[in-house]
Amino acid sequence: MRDAGIRRDVAVAVTGDRIAAVGVYGELERAYPGATTIDCGGRVLAPGLVDSHTHAIFGRPRADEQEQRAAGADYLAIAARGGGIHASVRDLRTRSEAELADLARGRLLRLASYGTTTVEVKSGYGLTVEDEIKTLRVIARLAAELPLRLVPTWLGAHEIPLEHRATPGGRRAYIELLINEMIPQVAAARLAVFADVFCEPGVFTLEEARTILTAARAAGLALKLHADELVAGGGAELAVELGATSADHLATISPAGVAALASAQTVATLLPGTMLFLGKAAHAPARALVDAGAAVALATDFNPGTSPTPNLPLILTLGVSQLRLSSSEAIVAATVNGAAALGLAAETGQIAPGFSADLALFDIADVRELPYWYGDRRCQATWVRGKACHQFDLPVP
Ligand code: NIG
Ligand code: FE
Hints:
Blueprint: E1 11-15, E2 18-23, H1 25-31, E3 44-47, E4 49-51, H2 63-70, H3 75-80, H4 85-93, H5 97-113, E5 116-122, H6 129-145, E6 149-157, H7 162-165, H8 170-188, E7 194-197, H9 206-218, E8 222-227, H10 235-241, E9 246-249, H11 255-262, E10 267-270, H12 272-278, H13 286-292, E11 296-298, H14 312-321, H15 327-333, H16 336-340, E12 359-362, H17 369-372, E13 379-384, E14 387-391
Parallel strand pairs: 4-5, 5-6, 6-7, 7-8, 8-9, 9-10, 10-11
Antiparallel strand pairs: 1-2, 3-12, 12-13, 13-14
C-alpha cells in the first residue's frame, strides 16, 4: 500500500472496454494509429475510484436525526425508539421501484461526479421479502441503465423489523424468514453478489450473524459483515472464520480482530465518514491494521443515517488526517483494495493492460492533492468500461 505505482509522462491506450497498454505517448501513437486522443495536460489520471460500501437505495434524508444527535441523543438510542434504520424502512416500504430508482439515480451520479466508477450498493431498508427484492431490483435496473459499475449486496439482516421485535418469538421468526425464504429467492433470482449482516449489540448477535451468513454462503453468495462498528464484539474474527470478502467499519476492533484480519484475505473496509458524521471520537486502527499486514479499503458508507456523503475523495482526506494513512495508502485503499473488497481485484482499480477501462481524471498536478483539497470536487471526467460516465469541464469526444 506504500507504493501507489505512480508514473509520470505516460499515456494509456484503451481498446473497447479494456486498457490495452500503458507507455510512452509516441510509442502508443505508433501502435494505435487513428486512435482518438484525450490530452490530460499534466493532470492526474487515476483508476476510477471504488466505493465498496454504500446503502444508496433509500427514500427521504434523515436530517432530523442529525439535529437530535447534536442535542445529545445517541445513534443506538434513536434506533431503540423506532428511528434510525426503522425510519428509513417505514419510508422505503411506501415507495415504488420506479420512485426509488429515480431517487437513487441522481444520488449515484453524484458519487460518480467525485471520481467513483464502481459502487457496491446494499439493500436493507425493506426487511420483508417483497421490499428487499424490490430494492435489489432497483439496483439491477440502475446497473443496466447507468454507465457506472454497480455491485449488489443483500442486507436483509440490517435490523430486526419492528413488527418482529414486537412479538414473542418474532426475532427468531425473522431470522428463519431470512434463511428459508429471502436468501433462497435472492440467490435464485441472482439479485445479489454479496450477503451482509449488521452485527452489533442490539441488532444481530455474533451467533445470529454466523447462522445467517452460513446460509447465505451455502446459497452461493459471497460474504461481507458490518463488524465492530460501535461496540467491540468479535465481528472481525467472525468475518475471517467465515472467509468473508470484507469486514467493514471496525472502529472498535480488538487486537485479536486485527491479528485475524492480518492473517487472512478478508479486506478491512474502513468508513471514517461514519464516525465523523456521528460525532464519535473513535476511529478504526488503520495504522495497526496496515502495519500488521491487513488489506485496508476506504469507502463512504453512503447512507441516510450515518454517512450521507457521496464524496469518496473526502473519505481519503479522513483516511490521511484521522486514520494516519499516507496519501499512497489512502489511494490504494479506494482503488486496488476497494476492488479486492468486491472480488474485482483483477477487473478494476488499476491502470494496467487487461483491466477494465475505468478511469478518473482529476484537476490536480500531484496525486497527493486528491486527499489534500478536502471536500472539493476535482474530478473532471470518468470513464467506465471505456465509455464516458461523468464529464465536467472537459470536452470528451
Ligand atoms: O453502515 N451500520 C449499519 N448501517 C449503516 C447505517 C444505516 C442507517 O442508519 O440507516 C451504517 O452505518
Ligand atoms: Fe454500512
